[in-house]
Amino acid sequence: MHVPTSAVLQKLLSEAPPGHVSVGWIMERLEERSFGLLMFMLAVIALVPGLSTFIGVLFAVPAYQMIVARRSPALPKIATARRLPTPQFVRAVDRIAPLLRRAETLIRPRWPQSFRTTKRMVGIAILLLGLTLVLPVPFGHILPAFVIMIVALAYLEEDGVVLWLGLALALVSLSLSAAAGWGAVAGVKWLDRL
């Protein structure tokens, strides 16, 4: 029986120790959903202008681990040991949970076999989308970050339909990034000829 992610996060609040929670503690309790949560959090941060380049590089970690079919992401010890004060964690969950509840009215478990058969393909798509976040194209970070959020929500709620929609949008996003890159190179060559 599938438990919505918003309910899982609320359960985490009840289990959280009073002082601090570590990133490792959160990831351990989310198990397979931790891929979706990690991608979602990184994609939200990537929307902040100036941070998308750094976040684009970070996406290589979960993407590689999906390509090699890990059950859940393994982060460096320095990241998993990072502690958050429990009140700060509670505030963050209180902000995210209502948004997730709204998304859960549309996104629900469908086509679960998609996740087993496409994990490597999704990892490659996330890796390529992360690379496009690194490109210095004005506002070029918005569409890839949005697409990664859709894929992350599909992973959180085990929705194969939304996953395939996200992969189709990834193809569109990558095509637009390739066209923008080609246009920039062609423009530089044209300026050199002047």
Automatic annotation (TrEMBL):
Domain of life according to the entry: Bacteria
Membrane-spanning parts: 35-61, 122-155, 161-188
Record flagged with keyword Transit peptide: no
Record keywords, A-Z: Membrane, Transmembrane, Transmembrane helix
Cross-referenced InterPro entries: ExoD
Identification of the protein by name: Exopolysaccharide biosynthesis protein
Species annotation: Hypericibacter terrae
